[in-house]
Amino acid sequence: MTQVLHLDQERPQQETIELAASIIRNGGLVAFPTETVYGLGADAMNENAVRKIFEAKGRPSDNPCIVHVDGREMLDRVAGAVPAKAERLIQKFWPGPLTLVLERRPEVAPSVSAGLSTVAVRMPGSGIALEMIRAARTPVAAPSANASGRPSPTTAAHVLEDLGGRIDLILDGGTTNIGIESTVLDVTTDPPMILRPGWITQEKLSEMIGPIERADSGEELRRSPGTRHRHYSPRARVVLIEQGSPGFIEQVCRDHLKEGAVGFAGHSAVEIDDPNFSAIRLGSNAKDYAHSIYATLRQLDKKDPRVIIVEGISEAGEGAAVMDRLRRAASAIG
């Protein structure tokens, strides 16, 4: 059975933290909250423990994991040379939702990096996560704590829904703050390259270190999780409407209702008097979407619709990361 224990984000109970750390040290799996989404953690230096992550999630073996550290000193246990540009970013954005791809030290479990010579690392901005890592005294490999391909978990209930019975412990710290995964920046290249957009935008990074490129080839994207396999998808088919008037969106919903139940998530008011139609209205900005979209997809999916229609938002600033996730979740884009 999977144990679920509640924790105060501001003052995590040390007894519970020590239990989680003990499980990590002994090769077990612990789901824990970060500021982005819940992660599924194992000792990053223990190959057998890391393989359990892939088994529990049904995760493809060529999809690397992010290693979570408690500070700059622990980074040296998993990464080789740290470039000057990376040091500046660490000073500015850690702890926080920025993952850096660096050269991997050989002591790191090979499965963490899917056999690559690089490793993705970040310092999470969550008190529970940091306390657990410090108590475990080891870097913690942790992809999102969901079944592979499903919407990422932003509550402990989402984790239990997907992984209950497959992992040892879930630390319940409430709903995550940001709601989408970290930015992944490869600093082994010059100029550095964004492999996955996230809450820290390209503009913010460029202000600190100058020009940055966006990866577009499969070979480059291999070094980051969440970039090549289908991700973030509910069981129902997702149709993303990137742009469209409320009238157009309503008509799309009505057209799909002719074939079965429809869910709708978006910032426009779409009201259709039909028992087969369910709608959840979101705020129109990137912060509201990021915080709510995964939970919304899961909530609508429970109504067993044939399709979920999702309205897009502007790609300005943080909106680019939200739209990246929605495109990866979508079966069709209109």
What order do the helices and strands come in, and which of them pair?
Layout lengths: L2 E4 L7 H12 L4 E4 L4 E6 L3 H11 L8 E3 L3 H7 L5 H10 L4 E6 L14 E5 L4 H10 L3 E2 L14 H8 L5 E4 L10 E4 L6 E4 L5 H8 L3 E2 L3 H4 L15 E5 L4 H12 L4 E5 L10 E5 L4 H16 L5 E5 L7 H11 L2 E2 L1
Parallel strand pairs: 1-8, 2-8, 4-6, 5-9, 10-11, 12-15, 12-16, 13-14, 13-15
Antiparallel strand pairs: 2-3, 3-7, 4-7, 5-6, 9-10
Can you offer a commentary on this structure?
Helix content is 33%, strand content 20%. It is α/β, with parallel strands linked by helices and 334 residues long. The strands form 2 sheets. It has an 11-stranded mixed beta sheet with strand order 1-8-2-3-7-4-6-5-9-10-11, with helices on both faces. Helix 1 (14-25) crosses helix 5 (127-136). The longest helix has 16 residues, at 286-301. The model has no long low-confidence stretch (mean pLDDT 96).
| Low-confidence spans | none
- The average pLDDT is 96
Kindly state the number of beta strands: 16
Give the helices and strands as they follow along the chain.
EHEEHEHHEEHEHEEEHEHEHEEHEHE
Q: Indicate the structural class.
A: alpha/beta
Given the structure, what is the number of helices?
Answer: 11
Give the termini distance in whole angstroms. 43 Å
Shape: globular
What is the alpha-carbon Rg in Å? 20 Å
| Oligomerization | single chain
Tell me the strand percentage band. Answer: 15-25%
Tell me about the biggest sheet?
11 strands, mixed
Strand order of the largest sheet: 1-8-2-3-7-4-6-5-9-10-11
The amount of helix comes to 25-40%
